Amino acid sequence: MQKDHFDVLIVGAGISGISAATHLKSRCPDRSFAILENRDTIGGTWDLFRYPGIRSDSDMFTLGYRFKPWTGERAIAGASDILAYLKETAQEQNIYDHIRFGHHVEAASWDSKAARWTVSATKNGASVTLTCNFLFMCSGYYDYDKGYTPVFEGAETFQGTIIHPQHWPEDLDYSGKRVVVIGSGATAVTLVPEMAKTAAHVTMLQRSPSYVISRPSRDAFANRLRKLLPAKLAYRIIRWKYVLLQFLTFKLARSQPAFIKRTLLKRVRKQLGPDYDIGTHFTPRYNPWEQRLCLVPDHDLYTAITSGTASVITDHIDRFTEAGIKLKSGQKLDADIIVTATGLNLLFLAGMKTSVDGKLIDFSQTYSYRGVMFSGVPNLATVFGYINASWTLKADLAAEFVCRLLNTMKANGTDIAAPECDDPEIIPEPWIDFSSGFFQRGLPNFPKQGGKHPWKLNQSYGQDILMLRHRRLDDGTLKFRKARASV
Question: Rounded distance, CA 363 to CA 420, Å?
């Protein structure tokens, strides 16, 4: 018979959930835990998406875990290699025994008298109820069931195939086909060069450009260093090299956007040549790092364009036709396959309905505490990674913080920890200062942040190390108490 109460319940068995479980096993070995995973396998994003060429858009030395060095030859790795790394980690840490697959979490209700969450889920259509003392949400930030596709007039008349990358069919044969990829983000710049290898031609159709930066998929310095130094020492050095590079690039982009813009566009022009229309197709209307930079490994997008197997068109869609797409300019694009790389649907806490002592929580009215917990919500934490660096950097820190919190509660004999925002000087700000369309669509449903600690959502790994790993927990904002039933 399965146990139905745990000290900690983790929701999600992707990068964050595996990190959370590993940290609990090493730092809180006396706590029982389980992982509830909606799907039938681990890996989250890296198993869900199956489109051609899918790969990391961060280096693997920071996308990899702090506690498990990435040993692959490529700094920019494909999804299959990332998934193998996650499965190896879960196997080494004996995580599989703690996972309950096929559990879709729908609601969680907190009872202050018992200091306990009751979590409602479904498995194969049947209701399942579990309880826990602490709930750790590691479910990501987007809807796994459905990607975002705008309404395109005439889409029903198109005689070819329309696909969203989140729902890629395994049997799709695009060899010798005319393909139009709608979008200019990370997914589009990944798909275009990969599909161009066998398609008749691939067109990247964008309303406006994104900033694109090219890097070698292999890091020669890292591979040399790993031959000279012990594995763990080499990994620490390489990891911090990338952390500092990400930090400095982001800070410089915010303080000197014109300089970074010139540098990025100069690199694009070097790859595409002086006659290519960089101004139209590769010069965004926003400043660098107001949206995430799109990574192009080994110049593959530029190679596809210069070879003639791919092209970029910047225009607006008028309507779909039987044969393809008609643009506002009057140009017509014939296509056999249209890929709508148009983004994700944000979904906070996996869409879970959350209540505290019978009151439904509207998270848009809460404040983020240290980027991990929320005002007025006890014994609940979540992972939300960086927009300007690797997701895993924050996932590891959040897991460390939760373990530190659990051990502090045990030491001081308390059952409940809840942030309380009673500072009248706190001015609400959006959860994320990011202009990407999918963020702007979903942010109204996300918590707010404040302009100062501990309500500020940092986009700085260094600051978060201090705040999550070292700054004292009894800060006057995080309130500790015993369950009412025990008073």
Answer: 14
**Residue 329: exposed, middle, or buried by beta-carbon count in 10 A (0-12, 13-18, 19+)?**
exposed
Surface-to-core class of residue 175, CB atoms within 10 Å of its CB (0-12 exposed, 13-18 middle, 19+ buried): exposed
Task: Report which of 14, 41, 35 is spatially closest to residue 139, judged by C-alpha positions.
Answer: 14
The per-residue pLDDT for range 220-277, each reduced to its tens digit, is: 999 999 999 998 999 999 999 999 998 899 889 989 999 999 999 999 999 999 999 9
Q: What value does the mean pLDDT of the chain take?
A: 94
Whether pTM > 0.70 for this model: the answer is yes
For CA atoms 214, 337, 325, 309, the dihedral sign is positive
Going by pLDDT thresholds of 50, 70 and 90, the confidence category of residue 316 is very high
The pLDDT-based confidence of 439 (bands split at 50, 70, 90) is confident
| Cβ density class 198-228: b for 16+ within 10 Å, e for less | ebebbbbbbeebbbbebeebebeebeebbee
- Is the Cβ–Cβ distance between 363 and 374 less than 8 Å? yes
CA distance 376 to 356: 9
151 close to 140: Cβ distance less than 8 angstroms:
no
Q: Cα–chain-centroid distance for residue 282?
A: 24
Q: What is the pLDDT of residues 445-457, one digit of tens each?
A: 899 999 889 999 8
Is the separation of the CB atoms in 314 and 327 below 8 Å? Answer: no
Region of 379 on the Ramachandran plot (φ > 0 left; ψ -120 to 50 alpha; else beta): left
Amino acid 410 reads K
Contact present, 65 and 396 (Cβ < 8 Å): yes
* Number of other residues whose CB lies within 10 A of the CB of residue 26: 12
Half-sphere exposure of 449 (CA within 13 A, CB side): 16
Indicate if the alpha-carbon torsion angle 423, 427, 431, 432 is positive or negative: negative
Task: Give whole-number Cα distances, 64 to 39, 77, 123, 145, 149, in Å.
Answer: 22, 11, 31, 26, 31
Cα 279 to Cα 206, 208, 284, distances in angstroms = 14, 11, 8
Q: Are strands 33-37 and 99-101 parallel, antiparallel or unpaired?
A: parallel
Q: From the CB of residue 270, how many other CB atoms can be counted at a distance below 10 Å?
A: 12
Cβ of 365: how many Cβ atoms within 10 Å? 12
- CA 32 to chain CA centroid, Å, is 27
Tell me the β-bridge partners of 99. Answer: 35
CA dihedral sign, ordered 450, 451, 456, 457: positive
Cβ atoms < 10 Å from Cβ of 5: 13
- Which residue type, as a one-letter code, is found at position 333? L
